[in-house]
Structures are given as structure tokens and as C-alpha cells.
Amino acid sequence: MSDSRRAHGRLPTESVWDYPRPPRVEPDARHVVIVHRGVVLADSWSCRRVLETSHPPVYYVPHGDVRTDLLSRGHRVTVCEWKGVATYWTLVMNGHTVHDVAWSYEDPSPGYRSIARHFAFYAGRVDLCTVGGERVKAQPGDFYGGWITDEILGPFKGGTGTAGW
Questions:
Q1: CA–CA dist 2, 45 (Å, integer)
Q2: Max alpha carbon distance in the chain (Å)?
Q3: Are 50 and 115 in contact (CB under 8 A)?
Q4: Pairing status of strand 14-15 against strand 152-153
Q5: How far apart are CA 27 and CA 85, in angstroms?
Q6: Which pLDDT score is estimated for 31?
Q7: 36: which residues sit within 8 A by CB, 6+ positions away?
Q8: C or N: which end of the chain has fewer Cβ atoms within 10 Å?
Q9: What per-residue confidence (pLDDT) applies to 6?
Q10: Residue 22: CA count within 13 A, CB half-sphere
Q11: DSSP of 7-62, one letter per residue?
């Protein structure tokens, strides 16, 4: 257990191994903030979180709560067997560029329509992501974009040797 968990008396309350497959989408009313180089990229109290077996939650921020003026459509496209085709976004601000900083599903598959016009950000590609005031840790690896908070218990898919999970 981390020192911060001991200090705050918080223990993990969710195991990623209890999350469903296929993934489930649920609303999350905690305050989510994303900051890079001192600029708030997203600030929301009405995110969606996607829960999938072996993955920390992925937070999807509504379009209206994101600084879309700083994002441009990237070249990368991936396909999720459940959610559909993902479009990736590049952050451009003050002469600084972060490729594939976020992704979205513009026309998600049935069952995932509630994440349309929402953006998910890679915590490891920006300076700060918080949920309910807690700084999140990025999911291991460079493909999945889950956010790890003190309430979430792994092990998590994404690191070396977990491709077959």
C-alpha cells in the first residue's frame, strides 16, 4: 500500500478484475481536471468512465468541457471491438505539440453512444490529471489510457508481458 493511501486512510475499493467484459460506461460526477504547461485543457463535473476487465477506468470528458481550440485531428485511427473507430487528437499550444494526447469516438457502436463527443486523455502525455482532487497515475504502457487512483486495485494490463491478458 502506498504511503498516501496509509496517510489518508483510503484503501482500494475497486479491483479492475471485477470490471466487466465487454466494457461498461457509467457517469462520474467527480471533478476532473486536465492541465498541461499551466493551461487547463479540460474541467468537468460530468464525465463518463469506461470500466473494462484488467484496465483502470478511462475518463471521457464532454466536448463542451474541453479546450477543443487547442486540439487538432491527428492521423492515427484505431478500432475497438466494442466501442468502434477512435480518432486521435494532437495538442498544439504556444509552439508546443503533443501528438495523440487524446482520443474520441465520433460515432461509437451501439451501447457506447453516451461517449460520443467526449474526449479521453492520456495521463502520461500531459502534466496533470485529477479526479476528485486526486492526482492520477497513467496506466502502464503506451497504448491504453486508463487512469489509476488510490481506489483502484490492479494488476493492470498494459505493462511488459501483459499483452495476452
A1: 27
A2: 44
A3: yes
A4: parallel
A5: 21
A6: 98
A7: 91, 93, 98, 101, 126, 127, 128
A8: N
A9: 40
A10: 10
A11: HHT----EEGGGS-SS-EEEEE-S-EEEEETTEEEEEES-EEEEEETTEEEEEEEE
4 pLDDT higher than 50: no
For the chain, give every domain's residue range.
13-153
Q: What is the pLDDT of residues 26-40, one digit of tens each?
A: 999 999 999 999 999
Label residues 23-49 b or e (16+ Cβ within 10 Å = b). Answer: bebeebebebbbebeeeebbebeebbb
For the cut 70, the answer to whether the pLDDT of residue 64 exceeds it is: yes
| Size (the chain), residues | 165
Grid cell listed for 100: 495523440
Please list, residue by residue across 92-109, b when 16 or more beta carbons sit within 10 angstroms of its beta carbon and e when fewer do. Answer: ebeeeebebbbbbbeebe
